[in-house]
Amino acid sequence: MSDMSLHETVAETEYEAQMGDYFALLKPRVMSLVVFTALVGLIVAPVGVHPFIGFVAILCIAVGAGASGALNMWWDADIDARMRRTAKRPIPDGRVKPGEALGIGMALSGFSIVLLALATNFVAAGLLAFTIFFYAVVYSMWLKRATPQNIVIGGAAGSFPPMIGWAVATGGVGIESILMFALIFMWTPPHFWALALFVKTDYGDAGVPMLTETHGRRSTRNHVLAYCLPLVAVAIGLGFTSIGGWVYLTVAVFFNAWFLKGCYDIWRRDEAQAEADKYKVEIQTFKVSLYYLFAHFGALLIEAALRSGGL
């Protein structure tokens, strides 16, 4: 074997993707939230679903979310390579080729949509198809690099799973599923922008117009409170629908009072105060936001369990 052929063999071995590299394309951490909220939407629906059909549906939703992640990584490979937080993702790190990511994303998209349609109904499959399209095309390819409201738009894609789960069971959309969608949608901006205030990002260097850099930190603080106010209304309102109850309302009142207080404190502070205590309020509010969705959707599960037990 010549030196040249040996070198080519070694190079091919170095860049041969592993299963873990392909799995990383699917953004498994994001997928876990998708699965949880979709499962809640399915369970709290007024129509029961056979456990096997429910399993297949949740699997399809998870695979669809993973497909969105792969397509997003394929399109954003250029900016991922310029940011410290994302430079080690499979494509910019050279472990997966862009064409492979595109192929995986397209194949998993088609598989998840078709299987969900066959296993459940066309409403649920249509919502899943729209979610993938919205995240991969409307958000990733169009608006992420065009507007500082990109996190709001991207958050919409992550808000559809409970609505899809509801549609799997009912074959349609109800006020309950719309409010579950709105809960995640309104939570995303204050959650992310609270983080952005105390974590330095390199989105600006990558050409992504994040609010903290395009409009400044004072404007970001205003936006945190502006989105938190309707979030509180949505969260409390959900408690007065057919899937709410005293357990959910107790949790919602507690967490929304806690989160609103944090967002208000973020709004009334300036950068000098934040730097003086090393962004203590911003960090605490972000930590509250991490538990916020889990607490609300967990309370909805408890309400469903109580109703099934006749309580």
Task: Describe the protein in words.
By secondary structure, the chain is mainly alpha-helical. The protein folds into two domains: 155 residues, Tetracycline Repressor, domain 2 (Orthogonal Bundle), CATH 1.10.357; 138 residues. 77% of the residues lie in helices and 0% in strands. The protein is flat. The protein starts with a helix and ends with a helix. 43% of the residues are buried. The N terminus is likely disordered. Keywords: Cell membrane, Heme biosynthesis, Membrane, Transferase, Transmembrane, Transmembrane helix.
Short characterization:
It contains 16 helices and no strands. It is mainly α and 311 residues long.
